[in-house]
Amino acid sequence: MRTSSFTPALHAEWIKTRTLRSQIGALCAIPLTTVAFSALAASGTDGTDSDPLFSAFFGVSFGQIAAIAFGTTAVSGEFRNGALRVSLASVPHRGRWFAAKLAVVALPVLVVALATGLVTAALGGALPPSGPSPAQGLRGALGCAVYLTLMALLAAGLTTVLRSGVATLSILIPFLLIVSFVLGDLSGNPADFLPDRAGQVVLHSTWDGALGPWTGLAVAALWAVAALLAGAWRLHRRDA
């Protein structure tokens, strides 16, 4: 893929993203919800919390909904009112267009989520003796950035498969808030390999399952890659 041919596609997709209120709103909601709920959880500890890192990053469970909404709305608009036909008329190479779309999903979320993670770690560390150590806080900030980016990409891939933002959100949000939460109480089972359960291991001070912080993120990445590959296949197989 030549840079000269990819750059215009990337620029066009970035214009779409920064001019849509729903996109900007979802992106702004990532730090707002994550930091707010993390601060509430961290301030409610009494210094005896066995997992200070997760208490400090508790808000990520809510921030991921905003990241998913961002990834979903970035793609779903292409399947309304023939917008995809217009996009592909400008960028006929579907793989190039999809790569540009994913870039404008991943990069803004990564930047915003990294800043969010650093602020969250700083707030959590400012609440001794219950706050995480500096090393734990740095791991949490990096893990927060990578995890939220992967969730946004997972949503983008699934939206491309389903060609519907409503369908994607109707599946992912109940799954994350209800199904995965219930199954996650049963540690040491296949639920540990669900994308959110695996990805959030990096936000815990200690862990009992088979996955560690970075292997957990690797499993979450595999889920995202699978969704993106399915989306790319769907995009190439079906007419705009």
Describe the overall structure.
Helices cover 75% and strands 0% of the residues. The protein has 10 helices and no strands. The chain has helices at residues 3-19, 21-43, 52-56, 60-76, 83-90, 94-125, 134-162, 165-184, 195-199, 213-237. Helix 4 (60-76) packs parallel to helix 7 (134-162) and helix 6 runs antiparallel to helix 7 (134-162).
Main sheet: strands, sense, barrel: none
| Mean of all residue-level pLDDT scores | 88
Element order: H for helix, E for strand:
HHHHHHHHHH
Q: Tell me how many strands there are.
A: 0
End-to-end distance: 22 Å
Helix content: over 70%
Low-confidence residue ranges:
none
Percent of sequence in beta strands:
under 5%
Shape: globular
Number of helices: 10
Radius of gyration: 18 Å
Write a concise synopsis of the structure shown:
This protein is mostly helical. It is built from ten helices and no strands.
Task: Describe the SSE topology.
Layout lengths: L2 H17 L1 H23 L8 H5 L3 H17 L6 H8 L3 H32 L8 H29 L2 H20 L10 H5 L13 H25 L3
Helix pairs in contact: 1-6, 2-4, 2-6, 4-6, 4-7, 4-8, 6-7, 7-8, 7-10
